[in-house]
Fold this sequence. Notes:
The chain is an alpha/beta fold. 37% of the residues lie in helices and 14% in strands. The chain has helices at residues 17-34, 36-46, 63-72; strands at residues 53-57, 75-80, 90-93. The chain has a three-stranded parallel beta sheet with strand order 1-2-3, covered by helices on one side.
Amino acid sequence: MKRCDGPEIMEDPSLPGEVMKVVLRDLTRTHRWLGNHRALVKAIARDAEPVRRVLDLGCGNGDLLVRIRTRTGAEVLGVELHPPEATSVRIVEADAVRDPLPQAD
């Protein structure tokens, strides 16, 4: 299998909002099914240093951040090129490669 370094469909600013919602919903379901969310929350909880603020680069709709905040009590913040309009967590519109990023543990 050859890795593709081209832009992802989610990076297309002309992607209709309804399509993006479906893509993010399915991505969240996939991460939950694979156990990625659970593994990340456990890793944060096991950290020897107290984790007070978590930064998620490319956070999509912020579902993982909601789970981290609920399970650990940490302050959470997401960074996304095209953040969704309504979320229950703070998501900053930024390019994680080029823009300055907020501080986090």
